[in-house]
């Protein structure tokens, strides 16, 4: 890997605060008036509709009137909304026409500031295999894919169950606590630590880095750009130290070892190394974490479905799929057109930005009856697009499903009913979709 060597003598302190949300909220208080305005009625890049949970009717109107439509003049520039299962699957099935590549714009709605210094931009662009086109995407994905085969997932099941049992057994009964912090974060960061062979005592750094990496809105706060890059550089420094420690060691099952012993990833640039860390951390942390929180929130919101879960454990595997559909932990992915094309009656031009709104497709009435309701026996729940579609479908989907399945099984084993009894604070974001805080109380069913 083309990075500067690290020696054991170099002292280094990794910051753990402020969190990304604290930094952004602080910036908003002082500079909120500097934010560009969202004026288009279908500009769903605005984060307030997600933090206030009022996005559903806007997407429903688009799906009914114009499933593919163009927004002009958003704070993120012009872009196309792609909002239904059919239209999103069509775009994702054509990866050679609609690019994911980081040098074409990448996978999120944001673009670098137009006035950024080219040298600074080159330093801060983070290639990652989800933001690559074939053939580079293929080689790097194949490097990490063996960690998520059915056989490997089965090997992890006992440890996932043991850790889930320990976390649930540590929870207080009859008194309010934050489910996000005590359960969702604890379980997902622990799983990431295992996957990376990451020092257990520092595992909460993974959550800290994930939030700074995954909050697209930070791109609007120009004053936080340097802070964000510095924090991600600290992340790269930590992982580079682990890389150096394991270089020359025999191959093992952790993701760092897999990269070291891979032709496709062993000679990554510093930016590419950092980018793939961001991908694996955000993909393994935010998505599962937010679904773990969303599950208990949804079951509390739909008590008839909670009663069905409490009465019959056979519904759990399908309930996992339905909860992933209903929650949709990542709201969108982006593609960039490489040439002119016609898309369901719309003329797409080369260079156009297309935003695939998974959060909308998972509420597509043409595919999911009563789509705004949680229905844990839904026959086609597996048709959800929360993991994407085509060559970029989430490589860790099976592991996420396993973690969620075991969580529900162990909750049922303890006859654990989780009631939302306090604040439900959602993420202020148009990319990551979930909860910052979810105050809950446990009772027996």
Structural summary, described in words:
With 445 residues, the protein is of the alpha+beta class. The chain starts with 19 loop residues before the first helix and ends with a strand. It is globular and about 55 Å long. A 5-stranded mixed sheet has the order 1-2-8-5-3. It has helices at 20-31, 48-51, 56-65, 85-92, 118-124, 136-144, 150-169, 179-196, 204-214, 225-246, 255-260, 270-301, 303-311, 316-327, 358-361, 397-413; strands at 68-74, 77-82, 98-99, 177-178, 332-337, 341-343, 346-348, 353-357, 416-426, 435-444. Helix 7 (150-169) runs antiparallel to helix 8, helix 8 runs antiparallel to helix 12 (270-301) and helix 14 crosses helix 16 (397-413). A hairpin with a 2-residue loop joins strand 6 and strand 7 (346-348). Residues 1-9 have low confidence and may be disordered. Helix content is 45%, strand content 12%. The longest helix is centred in the middle third of the chain and has 32 residues, at 270-301.
């Amino acid at each position: 890997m083309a990075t500067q060597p690290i020696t054991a003598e170099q002292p280094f302190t990794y910051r753990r605060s402020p969190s990304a949300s604290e930094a952004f909220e602080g910036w908003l208080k002082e500079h909120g008036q500097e934010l560009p305005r969202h004026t288009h009625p279908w500009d769903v890049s605005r984060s307030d509709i997600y933090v206030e949970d009022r996005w559903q009717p806007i997407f429903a109107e688009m799906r009914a009137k114009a499933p593919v439509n163009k927004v002009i003049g958003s704070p993120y520039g012009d872009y196309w909304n792609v909002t239904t299962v059919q239209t999103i699957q069509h775009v994702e099935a054509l990866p050679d026409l609609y690019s994911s590549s980081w040098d074409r714009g990448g996978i999120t709605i944001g673009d670098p500031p137009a006035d950024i210094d080219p040298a600074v931009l080159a330093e801060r662009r983070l290639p990652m295999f989800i933001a690559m086109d074939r053939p580079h995407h293929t080689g790097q994905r194949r490097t990490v894919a063996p960690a998520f085969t059915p056989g490997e997932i089965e090997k992890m099941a006992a440890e996932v169950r043991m850790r889930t049992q320990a976390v649930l057994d540590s929870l207080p009964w009859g008194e309010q606590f934050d489910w996000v912090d005590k359960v969702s974060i604890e379980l997902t960061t622990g799983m990431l630590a295992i996957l990376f062979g990451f020092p257990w005592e520092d595992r909460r750094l993974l959550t800290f880095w994930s939030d700074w990496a995954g909050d697209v809105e930070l791109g609007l706060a120009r004053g936080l750009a340097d802070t964000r890059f510095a924090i991600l550089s600290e992340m790269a420094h930590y992982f580079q130290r682990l890389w150096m420690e394991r270089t020359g060691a025999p191959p093992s099952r952790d993701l760092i070892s897999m990269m070291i012993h891979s032709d496709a990833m062993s000679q990554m640039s510093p930016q590419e190394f950092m980018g793939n860390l961001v991908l694996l951390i955000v993909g393994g942390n935010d998505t599962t974490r937010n679904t773990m929180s969303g599950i208990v929130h949804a079951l509390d919101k739909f008590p008839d479905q909670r009663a069905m879960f409490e009465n019959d454990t056979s519904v759990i595997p399908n309930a996992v799929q339905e909860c992933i559909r209903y929650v949709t932990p990542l709201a969108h992915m982006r593609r960039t057109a490489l040439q002119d094309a016609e898309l369901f009656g719309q003329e797409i031009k080369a260079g156009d930005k297309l935003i695939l709104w998974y959060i909308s497709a998972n509420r597509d009435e043409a595919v999911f009856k009563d789509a705004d309701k949680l229905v844990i026996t839904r026959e086609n729940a597996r048709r959800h697009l929360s993991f994407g579609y085509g060559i970029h479908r989430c490589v860790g989907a099976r592991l996420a499903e396993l973690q969620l399945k075991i969580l529900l099984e162990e909750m049922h084993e303890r006859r654990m009913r989780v009631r939302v009894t306090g604040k439900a604070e959602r993420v202020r974001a148009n990319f990551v979709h979930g909860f910052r805080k979810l105050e809950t109380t446990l009772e027996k069913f």
